[in-house]
Write a structure and sequence with these properties.
rod-shaped, 161 residues, 3-stranded antiparallel sheet, alpha+beta, 3 helices
Length: 161
């Protein structure tokens, strides 16, 4: 009599079921890695913008432009970046130039009130309110006066990345 080699059909089905259960329980951990990566990238953008704010302000102070408002015929600028009270204005070109991030990876949405939202490229939002609802963005508010309470601010929200 020949000895059978290999697995029975029942054994194979049990192994497939066990692998399926493991895949279902482990999948959320791997799926969430994409959100963590997006959040980490936005943390890097926030750091770049914060660094650019400080460098631009220091250069503006050296030029004596830290108390000048944006606009006008003699608009203050530092290294081709328009400034308001020494900080970069909330415009897409100014932020990407000052902070040095690529617009292929990130998109910038500008609100008329002097607020810029930076979020992952490929997403489309009609307004800043919709960007805030996504809870996955960097928010830059340009300076509104030379007072320290009105200086430019950068914040981040990565709760739902």
């Amino acid at each position: 009599m020949k000895k059978s080699q290999g697995f029975t059909l029942i054994e194979l089905i049990i192994v497939i079921i066990i692998l399926g259960i493991l895949a279902v329980t482990a999948a959320p951990k791997f799926i969430d890695m994409q959100g963590d990566a997006r959040g980490a990238l936005l943390q890097g953008v926030k750091g770049s913008i914060a660094g650019a704010m400080n460098i631009t302000y220091a250069k503006s102070a050296l030029q004596g432009d830290e108390k000048k408002a944006k606009g006008g015929t003699d608009a203050p600028e530092v290294d081709n970046v328009l400034t308001a009270y020494g900080y970069p204005v909330a415009l897409s070109d100014e932020l990407t130039e000052a902070a040095g991030f690529e617009t292929t990876d990130f998109a910038v949405k500008i609100d008329p009130a002097g607020t810029a939202y930076v979020y992952a490229a490929g997403l489309t939002y009609g307004s800043g309110t919709l960007v805030e609802a996504s809870e996955c963005y960097v928010k830059y508010v340009e300076a509104t006066s030379a007072a320290s309470s009105d200086k430019a601010k950068v914040t981040i929200d990565v709760d739902k990345c």
